[in-house]
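User: Peripheral subunit-binding (PSBD) domain-containing protein, Triticum turgidum subsp. durum:
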Amino acid sequence: MIVNGSQVVPHDSLASSPDIQPGADTSTSPSREGNAPRGSLSTPAVRHLVKQYGLNIDDIQGTGKDGRVLKEDVLNYAARKGLLQEPPSASEENVGQVELEGGKPLLDPQFYEDKRIRLRGYQRAMVKSMTLAAKVPHFHYLEEINCDALVQLKASFQKENKDHDVKHTFLPFLIKSLSVALSKYPLLNSSFIDETNEVILKGFHNIGVAMATEQGLVVPTIKKVQSLSILEVSNNSFLP
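Assistant: Predicted structure for Peripheral subunit-binding (PSBD) domain-containing protein:
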């Protein structure tokens, strides 16, 4: 009802209206469902992507829940602006000042070309043997054991050692122990012949030990460990 140019709300309408607290903000706020302000919700990773493209996140309409701006939203917006390319990384911002060995800049196309390196010597043999070994089924076994007796045994070897150039470590003991285990369970040291459906139980225990060197990973092999003593394994030139 209008009285003297002012709107008068009927008593029944006031009774059905929700309570309004004094000082409360009665301005209309946008709904979270479909009407959220652009860029109001986003993850730090998305904001970082927006910054890399030099965009304003408030200009991007989010398609995620509650209007959240997703990575796809940023990429689609950048594509519409003709900016869709790999965003510059932190190291590329000063690419004019960054040079690699030989004076080639970081973005030199030749820097990303494939290169072929011919393997020779032990590296060639190692790759060949490891490629063959990859065909063998692998498994992992883990068990905790008390090695107090092993510590005492190693100490006695070092004490009785007449050759002071030989330093006894735990590795030869572990290698020899593995050989003893293979003798007890020969199926672990076997190979399968598909053509004849036969299993060959290997008589020799040729054990390889992976080592990190200045030239990269090498896997020297100690042959016929089953016939070597712990001292002979320790004297092997391959071991550190």
